[in-house]
Amino acid sequence: MLKTYTYPKFNYRSPPEIASGKVLKVPVVVVGAGPVGLGMALDLDLQGIPVLLVDEDDTVSIGSRGVCYAKRALEILDRYGVGDAVCAKGVSWNVGRTFFRESEVYNFNLVPEPDHHRPGMVNLQQYYLEEYLVRRAATRPGIELRWNNKLVSVTSHGQGATLKVETPDGLYTVEADWLIAADGARSPIRRMLGLEVEGKIFMDRFLIADVVMKADFPAERWFWFDPPFHPNQSVLLHKQTDSVFRIDFQLGWDADPEEEKKPENVIPRIKAMLGDQREFELEWVSVYTFQCRRMGRFNHGRVIFVGDAAHQVSPFGARGANSGLQDADNLGWKLKLVIDGKAPQRLLDSYSEERVCAADENLMNSTRSTDFITPKSRASRTFRNAALSLARDHAFGRSLVNSGRLSVPAFLVDSSLNTPDEDAFAGRMLPGAPMDDAPVARDGAPGWLLQSTGNCFRLMVFVDDPASTDTSALSRLAIGGIPLEPLLVSRVPVTACALPCVHDIRGVAARRYDARPGTTYLIRPDQHVAARWRAFDAEKILAAVARATCRQ
Asked: Among 50, 90, 406, 488, which is disulfide-ready with 501 (CB 3.0 to 4.6 Å)?
């Protein structure tokens, strides 16, 4: 039990299939009720797909685990209905500081630009995020949550997957058209299907200590190399909610995990760091190793892998849960179109294509961070320490410092779903980019651009004044049963408009999207840019939708 958090206990209900002996048939089963599995269920629910979510436990994760949620993940959580709760409870931060021995050598700011709805990062213990997602999922009639339901076997076949599920009352069988594996880094589903994961396991150990204390430390990320209180190793400090601070101590590969977790060994390390006078209590302690690995592909017939089941990275950079939520964000709308027969099944190959590319970027950055943090030779340590020394006084030295390149959204610029630009544009909102937010007003009320997009294909058209714009063609666009929902972005305040319309307050949206009157963006349901043009052209737009849904 934790001192600052009471674990909820979710009710187990005996599955009716056990008494009836019938086989349960469902469109989609999600296995694993961590942040990614719960997010996946909520994403599918937004698409109108019924979901059965099973988990072998009956509560949320033990200990803080994942703690850092980046701006893009927060924007996805907004769509899932829990973004406000996470930001209200969590600790927002934008600044990170890196120290070498006793001196600060480097700092960064994640959101130097104003006019973003969400901060660069929010720190929140994973159990809170899971609780909010569970509470949200429980309100959705299209999601059935089954606790203390353990998957014990799976057989994949051409029409779906057959699952055997064990409960306190016995076994039952599920026939699923689609199975989504969100069952973690050790993925039993991956093992049952004989699928491999490849990559690198790092020969090092780290101690996590969640400490409850009253401290006036700012809401920043602090990272030490070779500090006097933990020589020749590294230490990471994050502030969390409820006066809980997360401290990671590098231990080295030879450390005994069970010995290191004992309070009599943990407390002296913390006192050396904080001083004998500061009062604190241990909340949770764990020792971990980490790996940078992924599956060769993430979709295998009608079984699809998301989150840690598909890819694992070291914790430096907060790329695990953030990347997993982007997996769910990418997959939900594609699976919806395939289930509805509006796109071929090969659209799901683009899920693997895009998210493997994102995983490779995360793996590269995570591996580089880990190699810098835990040098494996005398030469690499000498280089590392020289870079840290130079960083105190020289900008070029700071560029070499790597205490964890923090999670950023995936720019899917090489995706086969993109329509290449025909016109010249400036800025970073190129095809494949996740949308930048901007302050807007809708019906006279202030809001944000991202609140008016998502969950459908959106045709975003910049106009001078909706009252003087012919919008008749916008309201009739559709292809293969896929409607294109219009959104006008107006330079002037909107008094009346027959179509959805927002006022671009201070012109921030136009600047970020390099837009002028007539500029048109095709936005995917996951808020990534699919195509853009300087002028509205229905034929080109429909061709771009066909490309984005693998219909051509």
From this structure: 488
